[in-house]
From TrEMBL:
Coiled coil region boundaries: none
One MF term in the entry's GO annotations: hydrolase activity
Name the record gives this protein: Alpha/beta fold hydrolase
Alphabetical keyword list: Hydrolase
UniProt-listed Gene3D superfamilies: alpha/beta hydrolase
Superkingdom: Bacteria
Species assigned in the record: Tabrizicola soli
Domain AB hydrolase-1: 24-234
Keyword Methyltransferase on entry: no
A Pfam cross-reference name: Abhydrolase_6
Amino acid sequence: MTLVWLSDLRLQAELTGPDHAPPLVLIHGAGMDLRLWDALAPLLPRHRILRLSLRGHGSSDAPPPPYALGTLIRDVERLISHFALKEAVVLGAGEGGLIAQGLAVKRLDLVRAMVLTGSATRLVPRPDDRDAGCARLLGPRWRDQPALAQVRAMLEATRPEGWQGLAAAIATADLYQTTATLRLPTLVLAGADDRKVPPDLQRELADLVAGARFQLLPRGTHLAMLTQPEAFAGALDAFLTGIGHV
């Protein structure tokens, strides 16, 4: 992992996988960082994977809030350009899904396809204590999840600037009209036990994008990439293979 120096801040990023493999960009949600993908990334050896920590998260710089959604989109756009990635599939989780949608609308020349999980066109910021946050992220059996310690560590490591900045960025964001214009291969991958963004809302998101595919992961949580990594990777790999992104 490294800190990438951009013109105005440093962002934590990691690029792994074969040099000439098709790129996959992973964007986490509020309170998480690039460790969110620790269990998933090794299961996708055929791809060049870029994962990052948003500003205010992980080891990335934490400028004073508020942040704007456009700024977060621009941060990811600059990282993709920094690593010279072309025709990437962008996977956004939770609030990261809003960033993925905005990036696809802005830069279809960079984004070949989109995968959204635990997301919608609008998300309402909701401050939680750590236990409530873990319950919403990890589902009804959250205390028994092996990923609990890792999720708590990410939540506790997120600085106040990150929480406040991202909350401000999504507070007024409503991407319904712009996302409805998208015409690119899209997979909406929903956890059946997602307590943060119910599957019905995620199905509505899939219905909004022409030709999008909706898939429900049985017993999947909001963070199914951590709690059910094999099932998540299987669904993702099938989609990537289906669109020829291998």
